[in-house]
Every structure is written in C-alpha cells, then in structure tokens.
Amino acid sequence: GAQSGFGRPAPPPQTGWERLSELWQRDELQRYPEETVNIIKSAFTGGLVGWLYGGLPAFQQARRAFIERSHGELFQNRADAVQSAHRAGLRSFIRYGWRWSWRVAVFVTVFNTVSTGLSLYRNKTTIGNFVSAGALTGALFRMHLGLQRAAGGFVFGAVFGIPAGGVLMLMQNFVDETLQEKRNRERRELYEQKLLEWQSRLSMTEHLVPKDSNTQ
C-alpha cells in the first residue's frame, strides 16, 4: 500500500483490451462507467417496451375473446362481468408481455454490449460497429433454429444495425462531445491530476530525506 501510494500513477488505457476491461470495473467512487450504466438502462427500457408491445394487444384480444365466449354465462351483475373480462385480459397481458419483454431486453443488451465493446476496442464509433453488433445478435437469436435461420438472423441484424446506428450517431451530433470523447477526456484529466499529486508527494519526500539524514 505504501509503495503503490508513492508509485507513479498508471497512464490511461492505451490498447483496446485495456479499454475494454474497464467496461465492468468500478472507479474510486465505486461507480460503474457511463457506458455500462447506459447498457443497463437500455436493457430495462427495452424490456418495458417489449412488455407493452406484447402485452397490450394480448390484453385486448383476450378481453374480446372472453366477452364473445361468455354470452351464455351468468354473472352477479355488470361489474362482475367487467372484472372477469379484465382478469382474463390481465392474465394474457402478463403471459405474452413477459415473452416479448425478456426477448427484447436480451436483444438490446447483447446489441449494445457488442457495439459499445467494439467502440471501446477500436477507440472510435462507426456505423460498422452497429452493423457488426446487429449481425452477431441476430445470428445468436436464430442459432437454435438451424444454420439457415441463423444466416437469416445475421442478415436481418446487420440491416437493423444500419438505421439503429445511424440514429444513435445522429443524436451524438447534437451534443458538444460524444460519450467516447467525454470518456477519453475524463481519463486524461484524471491521469493529469494524479500525476500532479504524485509529483507533489515526490517533491515533499525529496525535501524531507536530507533533513532526516542531517538529524541522524
């Protein structure tokens, strides 16, 4: 601990693997990188959108089907009939909403993880990163259906990556600096700050050593 405190601070990551390894590492304040937080947020958002996409139509369809089937059934009153129809729709909302939710969440997570990893490894964000991420994600989702379906998923994912990456890169043009530029700037500023602190401690140590020697 004493040696690491007086050791020269490590420079910012220089290689792709070094930058990639920081994706899941916490900083000194126990915070994950912003890229990791964005991946988690997008997974949650994708799961919510998938649940609504699959659940709402299923809710309406199940409620309509229940009403059509229950014309001959007897209910205590109108409120009882409405509640029974809502319960049937709610069961379908949960069932089919969950099916879509986890699939969309996993797809978004894999896509963002791969595209972010490629951007960190190459230290630049290009449309090719999103195309590669989409192709890999689509192939993984179709792999269990056979090689032909996996190839179809590969093509679909690659095509999906073009507009998705284009929208994300277009959104970055409206900010002063991209997330990657911000990350590189923060790394550089943190390294310069640590370097100044190390030089200050080193200077104080050099002044103390001669005094200690004279005293002895």
Automatic annotation (TrEMBL):
Cell compartment(s), UniProt: Membrane
Topology of the protein relative to the lipid bilayer: Multi-pass membrane protein
Highest taxon of source: Eukaryota
Main location per the UniProt record: membrane
GO biological processes: mitochondrial respiratory chain complex I assembly
GO cellular component: membrane; mitochondrion
Record key words, sorted: Membrane, Transmembrane, Transmembrane helix
Alphabetized Pfam families for the sequence: Tim17
InterPro entries: TIMMDC1
Listed transmembrane segments: 100-120, 127-145, 151-175
Role this protein plays: Chaperone protein involved in the assembly of the mitochondrial NADH:ubiquinone oxidoreductase complex (complex I). Participates in constructing the membrane arm of complex I.
Similarity comment: Belongs to the Tim17/Tim22/Tim23 family.
Protein's UniProt name: Complex I assembly factor TIMMDC1, mitochondrial
Gene: Timmdc1
